[in-house]
Design goal:
This protein is an alpha+beta fold and 409 residues long. The chain has two domains: 2-285, Jelly Rolls, CATH 2.60.120; 296-363. It has seven helices and 18 strands. The chain has helices at 2-6, 15-20, 219-224, 289-295, 298-368, 373-376, 400-403; strands at 36-37, 44-47, 58-62, 66-68, 71-76, 84-87, 94-101, 108-116, 121-127, 133-139, 151-154, 165-171, 175-180, 183-189, 204-212, 236-247, 253-256, 266-269. Strands 2, 4, 5, 7, 12, 13, 14 and 16 form an eight-stranded antiparallel sheet that branches. It starts with a helix and ends in a 6-residue tail after the last helix. Bound molecules: 2-acetamido-2-deoxy-beta-D-glucopyranose (NAG) (6 copies). Residues 143, 145-146, 194, 197-198 line the site of one 2-acetamido-2-deoxy-beta-D-glucopyranose (NAG). This is chitinase. Keywords: Cell wall, Cell wall biogenesis/degradation, Glycoprotein, Glycosidase, Glycosyltransferase, Hydrolase, Membrane, Secreted, Signal, Transferase, Transmembrane, Transmembrane helix.
Length: 409
């Protein structure tokens, strides 16, 4: 991932870092790279306390974004997590304002990045172990060989993790100004970036993300990020309250004219399809349930609570009534069953007594007719066991005996 390579420290900058620095189609290396979708408006604003990123405007490339009352949460909650989003639009100079709170945690890096297809780049990076400083950085055409681009800046007032600050870039073809809470803290002039060669000057998208620098395979990156990450301290949250982006041009598409990567080579097209921004071509209207709720007036909230309570109240009443009925019904049924049981018990006794009586009668008869001795023990053969009642239907224990009687021999 490019974020990783750009975050490389001043020390230990390996050749392998460059190998990871790639773009799907680098227009300075390959011809016919696709044009970039332009933002095309000078004030795209999204307030994450009110709205979610719409997928037409943002590409959540890694992980998932959660929305809390104070904004979009980029969380590292476990090893391997590193949520990252990027805009589907590009700006060709303009402004990028992000109101955010950096994540705590040694080795954790919060970041705002502007990145072009030919690897021009502008960064803001916060190291979790340092809550009073932010680093700014820039790259031209993926050139990471110079050691004087990164700079640390103190953030005054509440620290970077404790409260929201306004980090703004004001980018033109002449200079790049970095602002913290309305104050310019750094200015990079075109000519001061290796005579313009290292000056970011091509259409760029905007990326917001958090990543585990302390887990990097590169020792240099781990050191820069402040060291190993202690995952027993998760979660580490970077919270973005709002983003405002303004595109200096009102083109709908940026076309790569040649392979120089110079700003003069970029062609502005206005006849391409404009990006579909949510809402009034600026403010997003995609909302989470929580955001919809938060956005309701007090009166609407009360009305909803009242009706929900009404429904719940009615439900409770129905439930109690049913339980009560069920219990009464149960008691009633139980009594009937008990009565039946007792009745059946006594009938069974009567039946048995009857059987015993008949048995002794048969025995007496058998003795009278002088049945051979061997048959005496087989006396049961004279008496058939109870069979299905003649009237059928009723079970033997439900009064069948009484109703129709068992056939007997
Ligand atoms: C940008 O638009 C938002 C509303 O979408 C508005 O509140 C804000 O004032 C505008 N800012 C500028 C600089 O035009
Ligand atoms: C989102 O970004 C990823 C990573 O760059 C890319 O592979 C994917 O195609 C993008 N998704 C869309 C819908 O553009
Ligand atoms: C934060 O970083 C700055 C700049 O590198 C450094 O001067 C300061 O001592 C660091 N603070 C902590 C707590 O590491
Ligand atoms: C990369 O940047 C360094 C420092 O500014 C410069 O000396 C070198 O020529 C640049 N390389 C290229 C290929 O532009
Ligand atoms: C953030 O800072 C920029 C640059 O100073 C300023 O134009 C903008 O109004 C600020 N935004 C807010 C919300 O204060
Ligand atoms: C935007 O386009 C209109 C014509 O559609 C033009 O008059 C205006 O100057 C353009 N604005 C910028 C900032 O390019």
């Amino acid at each position: 991932m490019h974020l990783l390579t750009t975050a490389l420290p001043l020390l230990a900058l390996a050749g392998s870092a460059l190998a990871q620095t790639f773009s799907d189609c680098d227009p300075t290396k390959v011809g016919n790279c696709p044009p970039n979708q332009a933002l095309g408006v000078d004030n795209y604003t999204i307030d994450f306390t009110q709205n979610m990123m719409s997928k037409d405007v943002w590409n959540v490339t890694t992980g998932a974004i959660d929305y809390k009352d104070d904004g979009a949460t980029f969380r590292i909650g476990a090893k391997g997590e590193q949520p990252l989003v990027k805009t589907r639009f590009y700006i060709f100079f303009g402004q990028v304002e992000v109101i955010m709170k950096a994540a705590p945690g040694q080795g954790i890096v919060s970041s705002i990045v502007l990145q072009s297809d030919d690897l021009d780049e502008v960064d803001w990076e916060w190291i979790g172990g340092n809550s009073t400083y932010v680093q700014t950085n820039y790259f031209g055409k993926g050139n990471t060989t110079s050691f004087d681009r990164a700079a640390w800046h103190e953030v005054t007032g509440p620290d970077t993790q404790e409260d929201f600050h306004n980090y703004t870039l004001d980018w033109s073809k002449e200079k790049l100004d970095f602002y913290i809470d309305g104050k310019v803290i750094r200015t990079l002039k075109y000519e001061d970036a290796n005579g313009g060669k290292n000056y970011p000057q091509t259409p760029s998208d905007v990326r917001l993300g958090i990543w585990p620098g302390g887990d990097s395979a590169s020792e240099g990156t781990r050191d820069w990020a402040g060291g190993e990450i202690d995952y027993s301290k998760v979660p580490f949250d970077m919270v973005v309250k709002s983003v405002r982006v303004s595109d200096a041009s009102n083109a709908t598409e940026y076309v790569w004219g040649d392979r120089t990567g110079d700003w003069q080579s970029i062609q502005l097209k206005t006849d391409a399809k404009a990006i579909k921004l949510d809402g009034e071509n600026s403010q997003s209207t995609t909302q989470s349930v929580q955001q919809k709720w938060n956005g309701l007036s007090q009166t609407a909230k009360i009305a909803i609570i009242a009706s929900v309570c009404g429904v719940l109240g009615l439900g409770a009443a129905v439930f109690i009534f049913c339980c009560f009925k069920q219990r009464r019904l149960g008691k009633h049924e139980r009594l009937i069953e008990d009565a039946k049981f007792e009745k059946n018990q006594s009938e069974l006794m009567a039946y048995r007594a009857d059987m015993a009586r008949q048995r002794s009668e048969k025995l007496a008869q058998a003795q009278t007719y002088a049945v051979p001795a061997g048959h005496v023990g087989n006396i049961g053969a004279y008496i058939q066991p109870p069979r299905t009642p003649v009237n059928g239907g009723a079970s033997p224990l439900m009064g069948g005996y009484q109703q129709g009687g068992y056939q007997r021999y």
